[in-house]
Amino acid sequence: MQEQEIFDEYCWNEHKKILTADWHKIPGLNNLSHFTPMAPGIPVPLHYHSDIIEIHFMVKGQRDTYTMKGDVLTCYRATGNELFITRPYELHTTGKIAQNRCEFFAVQLNLTAHDNFLGLNQQYSNALCRSLLSMDKHLYHMGDSQISMLRTAFNLISYGREADSLTGVQYLTCVLAGLPYLSPVPEHTNERVNTTIGLALKYIEQHIEYPITLQELANETNYSLSRFKSKFKEELGITPAEYITLQKMDRAQMLLKTTNSSITDIAYQLGFSSSNYFCSVFKKTFSYSPAAYRKNFTQS
Question: Do you know which SMART domains this protein is assigned to (predicted)?
């Protein structure tokens, strides 16, 4: 793969909002972006950012990012209430296939402004930059408070008025200053949630080719149905139904790419009641019909 440096331009539409450095003029902040649930676009190729830390704050759904070191690609999957960090010059990509729908904020921090970072004085500016660079993991847990403050910061800065931007930067600074205190996410998925919800994830994995009811999952965890749904959303940032759909769509992608099974057979294999319903869910998730996905993304 050929690496490159990618710079996004200013954009403001229903699903993608990108505030660039020349638009907001905040020292040390490059792009500040908000991506809402939408049909996925073209996969992002292998690229890097010089002198920039990039942080994706996941609000809802899941997003895979691959980092490259030598000739090895390592995949990191961030879900709701998690963040993913890439460091200066670190090669990364979203892979060669379209991503699931998700909502996240993206923050690019330019560390060359370390003496005036976010308008802080030299002492605090240098301290914050050192603190961010000390974060040596890629995935971290975060709480609803970080998302709430970041959303407020984005909204205030997007208004474009000096007083609002000043307040927005204070919110953003609070979010960033708290990041080194977050707990890293262990590598294995089932270790990222409590043992009880892990039982539900294991059940979903083992029964992904069957219809799965939420009551079955609640029974596995010995929670009431309402408690199970609440606890699941708290742990993973998405509902059980959304998680099941994402896992079925992941399996569908694999089957479309690696087998010659008909779309109807794949639909029934994954426990869908009809091929029409399967096609509808698949297209809603990836913006491609299963047939178009197989044609465009199956590698020879």
Answer: HTH_ARAC
